[in-house]
């Protein structure tokens, strides 16, 4: 019997070219039984749906010969049942048992597929099928009952495991264990035969049921049930969640193979509901796992492969201590393995154990020399250890392996800039700039190189597009050149939008996932671009959008210039009180617009100007310091990086350095609201570097200023300098800068500097140089802000610019014991806030 598997036969064209398939029609008891040997394992009498209800030619000399239509019905009911029983651990691991039973059209397709595969490949095939159904992971224990017995429905069972199925912790994750509806698409209407019936088959029933047990750190949210019924079919999806257990079911029953053409629109509506699974997706929020769960994970026993898998899962959830324990144990058990060394290095890096991280990355490179990414990881750790020449060599190896990788050239170029090897840096950065997409950081570095080389025209073009300035050093204020009244608003908005898009791409690519110095430095550009966009929109008359961008830029930068421009937007829209407060904050923040902002404060309300300006100083301080509840029973301090993803609460907290006791209490920050604001929804995240300090009574977080603002701190040199002690090497203590009297003043002080004299040092005990910092040869300046009272004593000292937690703590302890001659106004002692620089310097006689 000749037939075509997909096209209909045209009776008016008697040509063998219309056929592509041969089946058998057996006359049994006066009826035709249809057989197709191609399927090999189809139930008796079942031909595929594409061959049913079609005209075919029977090659026979008797009366049965000629053009006949195949059966439209299946001798076996088409049913698929999928049952999943799963359990999720506190750490996000999934273990699921899956059972599939299929008969009819679903049966023979799967049966034929597995029959054609060696049994050794069943596991891989089932992983692919399971992934298509929505459950990813490693498949094991695949069992297919009586594959050759076509008289019974096909039964398949298997187990799925994935150590990091869920990312723990997470604020909101969609998940779906129910496979999508298998109903076919709605075919286009035939222009030649518009009255032809609509093919919707094959008829059948699909039932999917899922039972999942969740741990207590999961909060599950389920969608509403869906139920649709027609005369030709029924569809329903239901979710029930109780006692940390989710039961979900999707049922699809299609009763016919065809519908009249007039029912097309109705069926299209039915089809749309049954295939809109995205609107039915459950989601969950996940808290940190318990200490007991983490401890149990670290003590896991198993093969090196099992340990590496569990270690990788721990690394993904940023549980670095557990990752190190598992991955190191795997390496000890199988030192010859080529796998796991890079992940071990990443785990050690997460614990700030940089030497061990270097050793692990070097081991990975030894096992596999051609891994570009591992060389990049190695270079980053070498930079942490100050081995910059070795870092250059590692980056060069990365470039050699992956010459078209933009990030490799970028990181090498930026390091060469730091080493002042300008010709080499220029080569790498120009190569990086030539590889799309655009990178603002690369452009900025090139502008600086061109400026140093005397190629001012090249520098000016780049800087104008990035910052609005006409040269790399156009102003000592990072924001002022971009926020002039005479800027081309259309061009500024265009440049800002494009560069923000480029930075968003960098976040999307994962370039800033490490929350390191590179990602933190990007915040200067983000703040500037938001400010540029806001100011451009203001000049164009779009005050609402202007305020959104400028508010976000102000919260991120706390630039006095940005505050002044935001105040102008408020003033323009008639928000007089908000304008007054923002002008006062501009004065408190300082910068080139401070006097202009002060004049506006006096103009709006001269009677309350002093009070408003004084209050603004206190308000600004509150914005910079976040008070926390008691987290520890002993004093401690550390640097912590926070990442915000379109939310005022952090989605990631990363311990950088300091007292290890604080590493384990960072979970408490995930529900704290911070003064961050996003102007719109985008891929850009806000990354803040903070100093976290705890006393026996409470804790606090100090938001560190952006680099562009830290470099603009206004200080005046004190007349007192202390001679270094005789010890060798030792600290050169207390190089001191006090804040200008016109800078930030604490509550209760006057903002009018007329007749005012700054405080002067009377005594300043030397800070201790911590042994660990001395051994590591760490040098630099800790910037401390404190209140010098009317009696000259120091109160409310805190770190504005951190060097290293142990040095920060030493600087704070020393400054708290200093004594000043207080500031005076009109001959009367007053309290004044000052900034002091404590300079830690190693030297030899």
The unreliable regions are: 471-475, 711-751
Strand content: 15-25%
| Number of continuous helical runs | 24
Q: What is the averaged pLDDT score?
A: 85
| N- to C-terminal distance | 104 Å
> What portion of residues is helical?
25-40%
Number of β-strand runs: 36
Structural class: alpha+beta
* Sheet with the most strands, sense and barrel status: 8 strands, mixed
Give the overall shape.
elongated
Strand order of the largest sheet: 9-10-8-7-13-17-16-15
Overview of this protein structure:
The protein is built from 24 helices and 36 strands. It is an alpha+beta fold and 845 residues long. The protein has an eight-stranded mixed β-sheet with strand order 9-10-8-7-13-17-16-15. Helix content is 36%, strand content 23%.
């Amino acid at each position: 019997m000749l037939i075509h598997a997909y096209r209909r036969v045209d009776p008016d064209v008697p040509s063998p070219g219309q056929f592509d398939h041969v089946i058998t029609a057996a006359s049994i008891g006066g009826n035709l039984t249809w057989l197709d040997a191609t399927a090999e394992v189809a139930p008796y009498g079942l031909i595929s749906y594409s061959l049913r209800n079609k005209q075919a030619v029977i090659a026979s000399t008797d009366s049965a010969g000629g053009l006949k239509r195949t059966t439209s019905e299946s001798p076996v009911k088409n049913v698929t049942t999928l049952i999943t029983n799963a359990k999720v651990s506190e750490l996000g691991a999934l273990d699921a048992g899956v059972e599939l039973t299929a008969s009819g059209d679903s049966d023979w397709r799967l049966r034929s597929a597995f029959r054609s595969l060696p049994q050794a490949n069943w596991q891989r095939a089932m992983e692919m099928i399971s992934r298509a159904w929505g459950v990813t992971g490693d498949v094991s224990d695949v069992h297919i009952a009586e594959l050759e017995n076509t008289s019974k429905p096909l039964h398949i069972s298997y187990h799925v495991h994935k150590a990091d199925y869920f990312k723990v912790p997470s604020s909101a994750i969609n998940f779906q264990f129910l496979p999508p509806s298998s109903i076919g698409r709605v075919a286009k209407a035939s222009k030649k035969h518009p009255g032809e019936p609509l093919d919707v088959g094959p008829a059948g029933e699909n039932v999917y049921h899922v039972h999942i047990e969740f741990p207590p750190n999961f909060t599950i949210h389920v969608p509403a049930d869906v139920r649709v019924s027609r005369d030709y079919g029924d569809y329903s999806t239901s979710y029930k969640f109780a006692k940390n257990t989710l039961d979900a079911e999707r049922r699809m029953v299609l009763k016919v193979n065809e519908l009249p053409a007039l029912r097309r629109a109705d069926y299209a509506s039915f089809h749309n509901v049954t295939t809109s699974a995205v609107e039915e997706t459950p989601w969950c929020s996940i808290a940190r796992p318990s200490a007991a769960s983490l401890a149990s994970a670290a003590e896991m026993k198993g093969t090196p492969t099992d340990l590496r898998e569990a270690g990788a899962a721990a690394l993904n959830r940023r549980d670095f201590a557990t990752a190190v324990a598992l991955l190191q144990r795997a390496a000890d058990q199988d030192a010859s393995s080529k796998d796991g060394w890079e992940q071990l290095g990443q785990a050690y890096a997460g614990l700030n154990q940089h030497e061990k991280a270097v050793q692990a990355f070097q081991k990975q490179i030894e096992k596999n020399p051609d891994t570009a990414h591992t060389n990049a990881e190695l270079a980053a750790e070498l930079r942490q250890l100050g081995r910059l020449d070795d870092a250059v060599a590692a980056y060069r190896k990365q470039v050699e392996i992956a010459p078209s990788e933009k990030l490799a050239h970028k990181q090498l170029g930026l390091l060469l800039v730091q080493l002042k090897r300008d010709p080499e840096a220029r080569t790498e950065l120009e190569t990086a700039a030539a590889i799309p997409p655009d990178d603002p950081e690369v452009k900025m570095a090139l502008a600086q190189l061109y400026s140093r080389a005397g190629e001012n025209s090249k520098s000016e073009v780049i800087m104008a597009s990035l910052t609005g300035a006409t040269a790399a050093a156009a102003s000592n204020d990072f924001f002022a050149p971009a926020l002039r009244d005479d800027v081309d608003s259309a061009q500024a908005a265009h440049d800002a939008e494009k560069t923000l898009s480029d930075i968003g791409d960098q976040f999307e690519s994962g370039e800033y996932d490490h929350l390191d110095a590179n990602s933190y430095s990007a915040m200067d550009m983000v703040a500037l671009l938001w400010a540029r966009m806001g100011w451009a929109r203001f000049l164009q008359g779009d005050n609402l959008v202007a305020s959104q961008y400028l508010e976000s830029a102000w919260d991120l930068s706390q630039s006095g210039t940005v505050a002044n421009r935001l105040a102008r937007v408020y003033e323009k829209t008639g928000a007089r009180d908000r304008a007054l407060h923002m002008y006062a904050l501009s004065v408190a923040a300082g910068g080139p617009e401070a006097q202009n902002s002060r004049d506006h404060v006096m103009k709006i309300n001269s009677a309350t100007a002093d009070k408003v300006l004084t209050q603004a100083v206190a308000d600004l301080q509150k914005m910079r310091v976040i008070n926390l509840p008691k987290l520890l029973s002993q004093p401690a301090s550390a640097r912590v990086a926070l990442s915000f993803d379109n939310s005022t609460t952090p989605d990631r907290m990363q311990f950088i350095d300091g007292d290890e006791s604080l590493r384990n209490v960072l979970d408490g920050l995930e529900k704290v609201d911070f003064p961050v604001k996003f102007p719109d929804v985008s891929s850009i995240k806000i990354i803040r570097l903070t100093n976290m300090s705890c006393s026996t009574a409470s804790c606090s977080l100090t938001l560190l200023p952006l680099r562009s603002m830290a470099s603009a701190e206004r200080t005046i040199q004190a007349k007192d300098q202390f001679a270094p002690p005789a010890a060798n090497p030792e600290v050169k203590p207390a190089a001191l800068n006090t804040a200008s009297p016109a800078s930030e003043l604490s509550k209760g002080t006057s903002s009018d500097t007329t007749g005012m004299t700054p405080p002067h040092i009377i005594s300043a005990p030397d800070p201790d140089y911590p042994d660990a910092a001395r051994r590591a040869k760490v040098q630099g300046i800790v910037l401390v802000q404190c209140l010098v009272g009317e009696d000259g004593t120091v109160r409310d000292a805190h770190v504005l610019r951190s060097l290293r937690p142990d040095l920060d703590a030493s600087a704070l302890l020393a400054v708290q014991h200093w004594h000043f001659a207080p500031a005076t106004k009109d001959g009367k002692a007053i309290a004044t806030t000052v900034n002091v620089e404590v300079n830690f310097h190693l030297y030899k006689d």
